[in-house]
Amino acid sequence: MGTSLRALRALALLAGFHLLTLAVLGALLGADVAAWLWAPTAVAVELTVLSALLGVPIVRATLLLGRPGHAGDVGLPVSESEQPGLWRTVRSLAERVGTRAPDAILLTGDANAGVSEDTRLLGLLPGPRRLYIGVPLLTGLTEPQFHAVLAHELAHYCNTDTRLAGLTHRGRDSVLRTSDAFQEQERKRLDRKRARREKAAAKAVAKGREAKEVNTGRAGFTYRIAAKPFLAYARFYLRATHSAARAQELAADRTAARVAGRDATASALREIAVLDAVHDFYMSRYATMGIPAGLLPPRGEVFGGLRSLLTAPERQENLAALRSEPPAGVPSRYDTHPAPADRIRLVEALPDDGRANAPAGPALALLRDAEQVLAELEAAVLTPETLALERADWPELTHRTAHTLTVEEARPLREALAAAGLPVSPASPSADLAAFLDAVDAGGLWRIADHLPKSPEAARARGRAAREFLRPALYSGLCDLTELALAETAAARWELSWAEPARLLLPGGREAAEAVAAAVRPAVGDVPDTAPLRELLRSSTA
To answer: Cross-referenced PANTHER family, in alphabetical order (predicted)?
Structure first.
């Protein structure tokens, strides 16, 4: 099937989405008329109310069909006067691709790029375009690789084949937005109902009454019912246009190779597969690790710190392995993108264009005052609550975060100490540890352990079996309490590493983990021996 025929089919299917709306609303109206003509008044009233409850969400959701999706416009707009180098690059690429340049550029915190267009008349009439550029791409790609990514995204809107060539791409976006609208409205109603129930439960508790279980009941029910035919049609539309959409993705890859070079395009696909994984890992393990302690990285480092992870010498071998073996999994039946490994293979099979993938500078150099941009991006995309957190440099952030997490992990053991009648000092882990060791020497190890949280199976166990259930939690809690004591009395600190989890280091740089494990193990043995742990504490503070 030719491009024009595929596009016309997509247009007919998209029009069918509107016809489905009219058909469903017509069926509801017909049922209401029939009820008023032939059914008792009470039945007619009930059916009319039900039709209204079903009809309103249908109209509200389908009104979004074909509208631009601005829900994701959380980013930092950059004007041509602010970033002339970036705009100059984008305009040049658009001209080489054969399409018009975007009207706006927004920087985002995602490892992704995309173009959206505010089309009219089911995508037939063009409108303003927005280009979304994820700063992680600028951070992790070279300029030629970045050119390939932008050329691919702009190629979805080129006019090389026909004005209708982008209909499938636009139609899929519209259908997915409409389907999401139904589900979003359902979520909103569930959240409102849950919030009301939780507020009522809190009031009941405040008055000394038993709170009812929070149950959202039938909240969002009408949206769930109304959405069913449209979700089914959306799945049909996505399946019907799947081959055309995949063909457009591969055509966009070929356009990127023509514009930016075969090798740059192939290497960009490899690098994006790496960035997808590394960015998620960085955001969860580093950028947001301080939130439990009420901390954020230095200004500009929430997104900018990814550079340190990508350039860490200890990470290079792993990153090279990821580049050499891109994901080859089977995509979803609705995913328009073939597996990265297949896309790379097809691009590398193109004729050699003589533009070798020579070393090049980072794409971040396209930004004027990149450090300021990274800081402004944080202000644009982070929530006010997050922005209000205290800032700390990476070493301090790492130490305070690890300390906070270790305090929480040691909490069950300290609560067990209190439950066993021993003195507990929340502000002094070393005092709690001393009380624990004295109790162990007095034969109270398993009396303390008996107050640790237990699984149902552990609670039923007796004798040695019960001890074996409790020993891992006892060992882990004692390791945590010992580390806290070393941080308090021996100035031990948790050290940032871009290659492995934070490590607790004793003065002089000696790693504490192995020494702590060796000293704690005898203290929780069948015949407890606290001497190694006491010696570790003594020698560390000497």
So the answer is: PROTEASE HTPX
